Amino acid sequence: QQMKELVELEEKILSCKGNTVPDALLIQAKKDGFSDRYLAQLLEVPERDIRERRVSLGVVQTWDAVPVSGVENASYYYSNYHGADHNTISPRKKIMVLGGGPNRIGQGIEFDYCAVHAAFALRDEGYESIMVNCNPETVSTDYDTSNKLYFEPLTVEDVLSIYNRERPEGVIVQFGGQTPLNIAAELERSGVKILGTTPDIIDLAEDRDRFRKMMQKLGVPQPASGMASTLEEAIAVAHEIGYPLMVRPSYVLGGRAMEIVYDEDMLRQYVAAAVDVSPERPILIDRFLQNAIECEADALCDGVDAFVPAVMEHIELAGIHSGDSACVIPPVTIPQKHLQTIEKYTRNIALELGVVGLINIQYAIADDTVYILEANPRASRTVPLVSKVCNISMARIATQLMLGKKLSEMNLKRGTLRHFGVKESVFPFNMFPEVDPVLGPEMRSTGEVLGLADSFGLAFYKAQEAAQQHLPTTGTVLITVADRDKEQLVEVAAGFARLGFSVFATSGTHAFLSAHQISCEKVLKVHEGRPNIADMIANGRVQLIINTPSGRWSKSDDSYIRKAAVKHKIPYITTIAAARAALKGIEAFRNGSGEVKSLQEYHREIT
Fold first, then answer.
1. Which one, of 98, 72, 265, 79, lies nearest residue 170 by Cα?
2. Environment class of residue 167 by beta-carbon count within 10 Å: exposed (0-12), middle (13-18) or buried (19+)?
3. pLDDT tens sequence across 192-238
4. % the chain with pLDDT above 90
């Protein structure tokens, strides 16, 4: 009955399209839960018009307390449009922090870490901290994290209502990932004071043309790129740039629908499958830097000075989304000259943008040149990792910078790390048995873990364990890789053979390894007969699988190998770089797992 009433109410609202909605109907719609944004969509008018109209009618949010078991007078509120206001407003100076909303791919718990530390920093600086978030699984929505919590969605309507009621001195939008950034510009237009990096700077970093001009001014190399609204334009751009290409739709998060294209046939198939391609929403085309080392740097900036605590090297090569790639601090293969270049570029870009707070910049190193891939003037998902590995509370310091403090007052210095920190991503593939668990430019991870040890290999091994990928120390390793990866395979396969693993390989890989005097046994693919790979996996004869995909458009589908690995809980690796790291990890663990140390002990060893 309630659904029927809502549908009937919506039909009444739709009948008013092009005319003024009667006051009583608008009031009823708000009381029944229709958001300003949804009403604006139904009536095809700006959301601001709906908001101004309802405010003029006195239709504003009121708040009631959420009962917290065992806690009296917890400042924990939810809103409605048809009740008395039980929200007590204090006269203290206050700052509002916007959280990240629901956890999802591309937007996980890492951002909540930043929001929580911001709340702690605000409290220490004498401000009342007001948290706005709507995820009960986070620490930021614990009743005692902030002075006051509004359990509300991160929308312009809800945030603006709270802002107008609380009248804080400003709002922090940097710590909630993309969600708060999406509404920052509209909040600013509505009179909200955004602390730290301004929405215009955030927009500049996302605007390809404006950002490219800035990089040219600073002399920072970028991969060649272009945009296309039609297949003909895409082919023309591809001919100008050269294959391979990284292609993606505009305005996507988490690398959604990104793909590496190796030739014109793949490009034609991608464009044919793309939806909503138009001059307003073109396909973005970049030169893909093959076999490039990818890395990133997080920096703190106060507008006049910048501090780069660490550079994080991606273990997988370019082409894997940064949120899915395993990473290590400090870098293990990047030459010192490139690290110095990255730090210089990071400082220059942060200062040129005018960042106040945090910035994350991603780079790729190819042909002895450091290229910038993108800059995000906000907290990134790597902030908690850098903070823990380097013993620098980046979110707390960034909050202080947004409140007006300067880096020159903080006496920050980069210490020499005597340990390694490896981040590994956690994937939900066991919940989706029919999904190919291969990594690529589209993000798939739902979380991440950190392994700390005195050596890179052991840190990597620990990170794999934490991610429920228990690397074997003995047994059989099954190897089947794409032709483009075979040259890099020799070192890895020889290493596993040296450690005493039995090596099995499919026909092409077997022939290649045999030609390089690496002892291995041949195993059939499923379409070649039995017993085959699937039989070996099902019978528990394989302890580790190394399988690099032959490509989405290849003649033979090898995804069944990776799906079988997930089904039978066998650790699997889909890149040569990760296989190389796994080899180092297994070898390090076999040589001794090292002593157990607390995080504080690792921090005390930083000099």
1. 98
2. exposed
3. 999 999 999 988 888 888 899 999 999 999 999 888 888 889 999 99
4. 66
Beta-bridged to residue 131, according to DSSP, are: 97, 149
Please check the confidence at residue 53 and state whether its pLDDT lies above 50.
Answer: yes
Contact between 571 and 545 (Cβ < 8 Å): yes
Condensed to tens digits (0 to 9), the pLDDT of residues 100-126 reads: 888 777 677 788 999 999 999 999 999
3-state secondary structure of 119: helix
Instruction: Report the distance separating Cα 485 and Cα 291, nearest Å.
Output: 10
Is the CATH number 3.40.50.1000 carried by domain 1-57?
A: no
Residue with tokens 């903080």, as numbered in its chain = 410
Domain 224-287 fold = Dna Ligase; domain 1 (3.30.1490)
User: How many whole angstroms from its chain centre is CA 89?
Assistant: 36
Among 324, 323, 325, smallest CA distance to 581 is for 325
Residues 6 or more apart whose Cβ sits within 8 Å of residue 154 = 98, 99, 100, 101, 132, 133, 134, 176, 179, 180, 183
Q: Could you tell me the fold of the domain covering 62-195?
A: Rossmann fold (3.40.50)
CATH of region 431-591, choose from 3.40.50.1380, 3.40.50.300, 1.10.10.10, 2.60.120.280: 3.40.50.1380
- CATH fourth-level superfamily of 293-415: ATP-grasp fold, B domain (3.30.470.20)
Residues 241, 244: Cα–Cα separation, whole Å? 9
Give the helix ranges, DSSP H, for 276-324: none
Q: What is the 3-state secondary structure (H, E, C) of 41-64?
A: HHHCCCHHHHHHHHHHCCCCCEEE
pLDDT digits (tens, 9 = 90+) for 21-31: 899 999 999 99
**The tokens of 472 are what?**
């074997």
Up-side HSE of residue 65: CA atoms within 13 Å toward CB? 14
Cβ 422 vs Cβ 460: under 8 Å: yes
Q: Return the residue matching tokens 């991440």.
A: 448
DSSP E strand boundaries for 303-439: 306-317, 327-329, 356-366, 369-376, 420-426
Count CB-CB contacts under 10 A for residue 73: 8
Band of pLDDT at residue 553, cut at 50, 70 and 90: very low
Q: 390: Cβ–Cβ under 8 A, 6 or more apart, which residues?
A: 309, 310, 329, 414, 415, 417, 606
- Compute φ and ψ for 9, nearest 5 degrees: -65, -40
186 vs 182: CA distance, rounded Å: 8
Provide mean pLDDT across the span 26-43.
93
CB hemisphere CA count around 70 (13 angstroms): 2
The one-character DSSP state at 408 is: G
User: With contact defined as beta carbons under 8 Å apart, do 533 and 522 qualify?
Assistant: no
How many residues in total does the chain contain?
Answer: 607
Q: Which pTM value belongs to this model?
A: 0.90
Nearest CA-CA partner of 158 in 190, 127, 112:
190
